[in-house]
Amino acid sequence: MQFSTTLAALFAVVSATLSAATPAVEARQQIYMCGKQPYKKTDYTCYPNNGNVLCPIIGGVAYLPCGYGSNVACYDPGNYSCSNSKLYLLKVCGGIPFDTNSYVCVQGHLCPKTHPLRCGEACYNISQYWCDKGILKQQGQK
Ligand SMILES: *[C@@H]1O[C@H](CO)[C@@H](O)[C@H](O)[C@H]1NC(C)=O
Ligand SMILES: *[C@@H]1O[C@H](CO)[C@@H](O)[C@H](O)[C@H]1NC(C)=O
């Protein structure tokens, strides 16, 4: 009698623990809808503004959509940027990711593509300036 009471009490504790844990498990495995596609929020993000596109979550990184509907590419925002539905590879320059569409990396420093040369700390364009021992001079200037 005493033994079965202990067992019943033990069972009560176990089932209380189980039922407390159950909602968390259900929330993690719950299926959501992205348009007509089922998905889990732990594995994908739904982007209704891109035509109900699902992008994966990989290694803790939520990939972002670029484009719309069937023309969507999902990208890692650490490697790419998206502009007008086009992807641009981000390269790293001196530890800073940058958009290769707009910048170039010169000796570990970023310069705008229109001013792709470096003189001392400045970026310049050869059509306007020249570099005299680290000092910018205007073209035509000696
Ligand atoms: C993005 O960059 C990380 C590390 O910088 C790399 O491991 C990963 O393969 C890259 N992803 C793509 C799609 O290039
Ligand atoms: C330098 O500037 C000129 C005039 O602004 C421009 O036409 C040219 O494309 C620039 N050079 C580079 C490499 O962008």
From TrEMBL:
Pfam annotation, one family: Carb_bind
Signal peptide positions on this chain: 1-27
ATP-binding among keywords: no
Entry-linked InterPro entries: Eng1_septum
Endo-1,3(4)-beta-glucanase 1 carbohydrate binding domain boundaries: 33-87, 93-136
A GO term for molecular function: carbohydrate binding
Statement: the UniProt record of this protein carries the keyword Transmembrane helix: no
Superkingdom per UniProt: Eukaryota
Keywords per UniProt: Signal
The protein's name: Endo-1,3(4)-beta-glucanase 1 carbohydrate binding domain-containing protein
